[in-house]
């Protein structure tokens, strides 16, 4: 049991949050209202032209040997008021299904009624007909050749670059995303009056949606069968489905130019990992004991594990191991000591075998889930579908280590199918994936150095961006830093201790999310002093790993580096949180790990956008993760919140801690973690998520009552009075990141863009108020059901530099009863 355990919040107030700084009407939309006749005429002309062009195209398809399409479904490209589809559920009142949200208010849409509804609304807008007001926010309709605008918005950057060279007769394998914008209706309360009737209608709506989804999938499969075939199963991502297909170049062009529901076509991911092998043996004279019967079990999704290895065997029940490869064996056949075996050893021995005290009791059970072949590649499986299968097959597991990624950086427009599927599984199945950022290869590093791009500058290049699926919003994503530095007469390390590993990949993540979330020690590399660009591994800079001996070699060694081996260090920490809080879900694991992390060196006090891109929130530690100290106290709470709901939390700071006669430096850290339903067809965090959350802190000198009036518009239906400007004279805490990219010490980063939001501030103890208060606020994304989403909030208060006793005084002031070990 921890000596100073984390405390739970004992007070919270629930109410309706006050919306500060609502965005008003857009000038362009207002101008359209002032010119109804002119705006309607312009749109009508474009609708008429678009319909005529589509009818002509449909007539020509048969003669050109193209697949048949529904003449009543017409692709359209619209410009609407930015943010419209995240504040209004969709464009269905205009007869438009949203296929994809693009940048700056552009929408790929599909009219499902030959543009009839759209035409009627446009005509009604001219005469102020009730229900036609949204036409003011429809700014323009693009009329013209779809071959001109669709490839740019549908294709990945790599395919777009090759688009002019596509051969009609050649065969291509690509990943395709197909939109299906029919929201799942909210379930009614069966206990309310008429609940049974509403529940019956709800089930009818679900059945109707499932039937419509099946029709959309059958329609797509029929279209593809004209040119090729599906090479994977279909993966459902709520508002879309995705798969891999093999088809001719002619079919690929027709899919991109004319298929009304396609929103993404991308090259198939190359998922393969390299493993080096210098076989530097490490002494491993250790007596190993099996985990306790109640220990957490962790799924290792990798290349298999050498289950008979004496250092691993007590933690693995081979009868529960599964191979998802074409080879039924679950052994690790990767040359050079394996890959999954090394990852598994790192979960169980995070500091290396030689640093353990004998006898050593293994901390967890491991489940061997083999997905990579003997060449360390993922072949013949669609990664997103594989993740669904694994979670479905192992519903008793709550933590998965995934040290696997694509070789290519993530695509910046839509969340990938793989990453979105991880997000869906984490939210719905309440599991946590800990995944690596991916590695920059030795070949690429040498190429950068030969070209004059020095370490670490080359890591800022687009090719060194985090690899798919490391952009996943809800996964815990791990990068690597050097654990040591090295120099002799022939070689020197690339970077010093706690600087980025030369092979790690940088953030930020998609749409400005903070990624990686954390970093830890995955090894380093050396370069020759006499010939720049001859980078290699070195035993001093390599972590100590357990090795598979199926191909020969030693049982342990220092022969491999990579973010693959940093990731299981964080998996170990997640297992420790689950051990302490077995009933908690992924959000508390994420929040506590990030709360325990700190940026290295001076970066913690003076962070920059670049250091957040390198390190995320920093290097986590077990001590801060699971325990406190006399000078540090941590509060946490896990709950659920709906859109347009606010939860207010307060921590009482006793007078002895904030007395004017003292002048201690105090660190305040806050971390919020949450998950929600997601939509792949959307861009930006606030429209990707069904509901998004943020947290709002009080100011210094602000009472709990005053902050409640500011943060909550009403409580139990009773309005709070609040006068704008009453807080202007109060000083805010000097938070490092804050809620806007132009606020805080770190510019260009907005903590609200992430589902894992940490911030911290340094203040003097006498500046603290009687209470520290914060409000968790729920905001509408695309979900109009107001379904509650889970979250965890963690707050720590620590006196720096001096062992000032604050834990017990704050605990007593907040009436939290725990057993304190002495």
Automatic annotation (TrEMBL):
Domain Peptidase S8/S53 intervals: 295-604
Pfam families tied to this protein: Peptidase_S8
Protein name: S8 family peptidase
UniProt keywords, alphabetically: Hydrolase, Protease, Serine protease
A Gene Ontology molecular function term of the record: serine-type endopeptidase activity
Organism ancestry: Bacteria, Pseudomonadati, Bacteroidota, Saprospiria, Saprospirales
Record keyword Hydrolase present: yes
Positions of region (Disordered): 21-44
UniProt biased composition (Polar residues): 34-44
Signal peptide extent: none
Record family assignment: Belongs to the peptidase S8 family.
Domain of life: Bacteria
Membrane is among the record's keywords: no
GO terms, biological process: proteolysis
Organism name: Neolewinella aurantiaca
InterPro entries, sorted: Peptidase_S8/S53_dom, Peptidase_S8/S53_dom_sf, Peptidase_S8_subtilisin-like, Peptidase_S8_subtilisin-rel, Y4bN_pept_dom
